[in-house]
Amino acid sequence: MSFKTIAIGCDHAGFTYKDAIIAMLVKQGMAVLDFGTFSEESVDYPDFAHPAADSVEQGRADLGIVLCGSGNGVAITVNKHKGIRAGLCWTEELAALVRQHNNANMLAIPARFVSLETAQAMVNTFLHTDFEGGRHDRRVAKIACN
């Protein structure tokens, strides 16, 4: 795996984590497409989740990360995109499994329910875990509603 560009978007609840995650990714040599938000002022999460999902769906980013308070709003939003498979995770093990078994291309993080350290660990695990393929290929192929 050689992911080079990561899309990221969040609402106000995920803002501080977003900036820390971006710094971590840049330090690892990755390019980041930051779709905002850019402050803790209250905003609507779909306004930032949709552009992040678009960039992954259209191939401008290899993978994406979205954050909001519960992680549910951004996960639901990005999963409306035909080419997106996002997993809402709150542990490193789940972040690994969503890549290994579901070939997820976006990670949704519940910023109000995990520590920054856990969020960063989940991102690292998500980015450095490969899809296992095999029996999972058949299952992933059945996910999309054409």
Strand order of the largest sheet: 2-1-3-5-4
Form type: globular
Q: Are there runs of 5+ residues with pLDDT below 50, and where? A: none
Output the helix-strand order. Answer: EHEHEHEHEHH
| Radius of gyration, in angstroms, nearest whole number | 14 Å
Structural summary, described in words:
The chain is globular. Helix content is 41%, strand content 16%. The chain is of the alpha/beta class. It has helices at 15-27, 46-57, 72-78, 92-100, 116-127, 135-141; strands at residues 5-10, 31-34, 63-68, 86-88, 106-110. The protein has six helices and five strands, in the order E-H-E-H-E-H-E-H-E-H-H. The protein has a single domain, classed as Sugar-phosphate isomerase, RpiB/LacA/LacB (Ribose 5-phosphate Isomerase B, Chain: A, 3-Layer(aba) Sandwich). The termini are far apart. It has a five-stranded parallel beta sheet with strand order 2-1-3-5-4, with helices on both faces. The relative contact order is 0.18.
Brief summary of the model shown:
With about 150 residues, the protein is an alpha/beta fold. It has helices at about 15-25, 45-55, 70-80, 90-100, 115-125, 135-140, and strands spanning about 5-10, 30-35, 65-70, 85-90, 105-110. The chain has a single domain, classed as Sugar-phosphate isomerase, RpiB/LacA/LacB (Ribose 5-phosphate Isomerase B, Chain: A).
List its traits:
146 residues; Ribose 5-phosphate Isomerase B, Chain: A; alpha/beta; globular; 5 strands; 6 helices; 16% strand; 5-stranded parallel beta sheet
